[in-house]
Write a sequence for this structure.
């Protein structure tokens, strides 16, 4: 498959984070002045599998999805259709998003807004808080254990919730070890970009019942949501399928009515 490697994406993220250093004090002031944000964890509760709808222009694996979208208007349509949270991709080099997209969305919706990016530095947390994010994505594969722990702690200190993403059993252990607000189980292998929903079906039952579990990638239809609900998903994060939909509200609504099935506490975690 042609496209950027995960290492290239991370290298670009580090460069973008480094470029924020001169603005550290201004970002810290803006973050401190930001008001309270709605809770992502609370939004994922309920009788149906919650839809976290993503504002996404491009994808390294899918190409141009909707390059000309109005981020705020798209998010409003998702929420009108029943999305309980909005994810905004803010990586510009590979996904066509910006932090301005997140700020635009946060201004016009009342649901939680997740900053989805390759977070490698505390400066990106300050930037997210200042722009109105309720939560940030932390990717286990992108961070060593110490960095993951430090970023999760720093996010909590700023009032940001964390969706911590895993793609394997060992990554899931690492995610659960940093007290996440929610765990994301990504069916997409970030090294190959191949999607396999069987990954989510294997890992979702391992997430303790008290931790919200979000299935990420590969959701195209209500049948996919039902499949993931059977595995124990509390929520699904949907990007590509919603991005290409002509009627964003109807597309979100078509995914938002699948009942949750719940999840037992895995035997190895019972006390």
């Amino acid at each position: 498959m042609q496209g950027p490697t995960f290492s290239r994406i991370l290298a670009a993220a580090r460069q973008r984070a480094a470029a924020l250093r001169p603005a550290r004090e201004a970002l810290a002031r803006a973050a401190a002045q930001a008001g309270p944000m709605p809770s992502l964890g609370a939004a994922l509760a309920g009788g149906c599998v919650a839809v976290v709808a993503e504002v996404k222009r491009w994808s390294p694996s899918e190409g141009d999805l909707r390059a000309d979208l109005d981020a705020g208007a798209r998010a409003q349509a998702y929420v009108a259709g029943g999305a309980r949270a909005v994810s905004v991709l803010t990586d510009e080099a590979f996904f066509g998003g910006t932090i301005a997209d997140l700020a635009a969305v946060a201004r016009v919706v009342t649901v939680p807004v997740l900053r989805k990016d390759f977070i490698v530095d505390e400066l990106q947390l300050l930037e997210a808080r200042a722009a109105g994010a309720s939560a940030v994505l932390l990717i286990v594969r992108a961070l060593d254990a110490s960095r993951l722990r430090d970023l999760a702690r720093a996010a909590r200190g700023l009032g940001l919730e964390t969706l911590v993403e895993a793609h394997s059993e060992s990554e899931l252990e690492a995610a659960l070890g940093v007290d996440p607000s929610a765990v994301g189980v990504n069916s997409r292998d970030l090294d190959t970009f191949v999607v396999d929903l069987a990954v989510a079906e294997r890992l979702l039952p391992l997430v303790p019942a008290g931790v919200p579990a979000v299935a990420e990638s590969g959701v195209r239809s209500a049948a996919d949501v039902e499949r993931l609900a059977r595995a124990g998903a509390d929520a699904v994060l949907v990007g590509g399928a919603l991005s290409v939909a002509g009627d964003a509200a109807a597309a979100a609504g078509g995914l938002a009515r699948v009942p949750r099935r719940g999840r037992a506490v895995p035997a190895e975690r019972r006390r």
